Amino acid sequence: MQGEILIAGGGIGGLVTALSLHQAGFSVRIYEAVPSIEPLGVGINLLPHAVRELDELGLREALEAEGVLCRELAYCTKRGQRIWAEPRGLRAGYLWPQISIHRGALQMVLLQAARERIGDERIHLGHRVGHVESDGRGVHVALSDRHGASHDRAEGALLVAADGIHSAVRKQFYPDEGPPRWNGAIMWRGVAEAPPYLDGHTMIMAGHPQLKFVSYPISHRAEKPGHQQINYIAEKRLPVAEEATPEEREDWTRRAQLEDFAPLFEQWRFEWLDVPALIAATDDVWIYPMVDRDPLPRWTHGRATLLGDAAHPMYPIGSNGASQAIVDARVLTGCLLAYPGDPESALARYEDERRPATAKIVTANRGMGPELPMQLVEERAPHGFAHLHDVISHDELNTIAEQYKRLTGFAIEPLNSRPSLADPEHWSRP
Ligand SMILES: Cc1cc2nc3c(=O)[nH]c(=O)nc-3n(C[C@H](O)[C@H](O)[C@H](O)COP(=O)(O)OP(=O)(O)OC[C@H]3O[C@@H](n4cnc5c(N)ncnc54)[C@H](O)[C@@H]3O)c2cc1C
Fold first, then answer.
1. Which of 53, 187, 252, 323 should be mutated for ligand 1, with most atoms under 8 A from CB?
2. Residue 96 backbone dihedrals phi, psi, to 5 degrees
3. Do residues 318 and 404 make contact, with C-beta atoms less than 8 angstroms apart?
4. Which of 226, 255, 259, 416 has a Cα at 20 to 30 A from 145?
5. For the chain, what are the domain ranges?
6. How far is the CA of 335 from the centre of ligand 1 (A)?
7. Would you give per-residue pLDDT tens digits along the chain (430 residues)?
8. Whether 143 contacts 150, CB under 8 Å
9. Which residue minimizes the CA distance to atom 39 of ligand 1?
10. What gap in Å lies between CA 111 and CA 162, rounded to an integer?
């Protein structure tokens, strides 16, 4: 293809897109709004289908060194009684692990690789992407700094907008869309240094949709010997109407106080995890509303398309946000390789594949996805149970888990045996 591929956003989706396209031989340039990329955020999970793609980019070792290999996901009640557990990653039989990692550490691994492979001179920080114009030969993109002062325009063959949930490019395409949709849940997110719980490799979800505590270790590096860094999300759902809008705009860097939510979990002392102690061991807490957006009828407008949260922001259920952005990046790469010299067809093929697939996940996550058993058990046995299977059958549990895995491309054998998503063979039409 003639000309450079421009990428809006140097978050997880933008950096993986840049690394993947560069590896495939395309010339890329990243425009990131913030003047300096800091390791922001808390924990994030990379599912095996995303780790596989990162492995093909030569990043598996670096990511494994930063994160923790998740071996099990356990769902429990608010009293810590186990409802369901399933093996994850390598232990489940995937050839690739599930990696729980600090989002900032993940972004830094990607950024360092991008700097080494693509070059600093192609990563433009402090450059916010604004209005995009497309013609038959390429794109013209307006750029500004954080104060709105204009930079020179950029020109390229294509624009991939990976500029997150508040995407300026999406807004240009859909000016009347409005703010993200809030489901009434608030998440307090923190990382605490604490002794490992269970086997030190387990992600747990406790409670029910109205009050939930999720935690997983994200790093073995801790100041105190024998401790880990443990990520948690304390979540409370407020009784609001469906169309409610959170009071303040969702921002991943908004701080909160422990007192705002610690009392809600005061009784949650399980034999195997002391939730109040974990919360008390946190220095910094961030608050974020649970938001998504409706699936779009179209991502590609001329030579510009959407990717990651710009295309399909979803509730952080099922650990899919970052993983789906990574899958987008690799499918886009494969499609561009499959249609050399025909970027319009490549973008159409990318969108045909990814838009319906991600719309299904957005919708499934609104319906509680794999967390449905927590709701069912809370409704059927709010005061606990003597025998789980008096409350919910093994078959019911299994069916719910399998349905979600099928939907998100999480089935083991197809993932282990198929070629890479960046392989053009997948995407060329007969
Ligand atoms: C600061 C921050 C912290 C986060 N923390 C967490 C977390 O702890 N846990 C979690 O599950 N998810 C977190 N997320 C969201 C998570 O990274 C995404 O859901 C997922 O990884 C998909 O990535 P993405 O690249 O599509 O979006 P993001 O990772 O959100 O990246 C979007 C990038 O685009 C940049 N950008 C925005 N507008 C423009 C523009 N007009 N021009 C150029 N660049 C622009 C942003 O600065 C950002 O770097 C965080 C996102 C951010 C930005």
1. 252
2. -125, 145
3. yes
4. 255
5. 5-43+103-178+294-367+420-426
6. 24
7. 778 999 999 999 999 999 999 999 999 999 999 999 888 888 999 999 999 999 999 999 999 999 999 999 999 999 999 998 989 999 999 999 999 999 999 999 999 999 999 999 999 999 999 999 999 889 999 999 878 778 789 999 999 999 999 999 999 999 999 889 888 889 999 999 999 999 999 999 999 989 999 999 999 999 899 999 999 999 998 876 444 566 555 677 788 899 999 999 999 999 999 999 999 999 889 998 888 999 999 999 999 999 999 999 998 877 788 999 999 999 999 999 999 989 999 999 999 999 999 999 898 888 777 788 898 999 999 999 999 889 999 898 888 877 777 776 678 898 999 989 999 998 886 5
8. yes
9. 163
10. 15
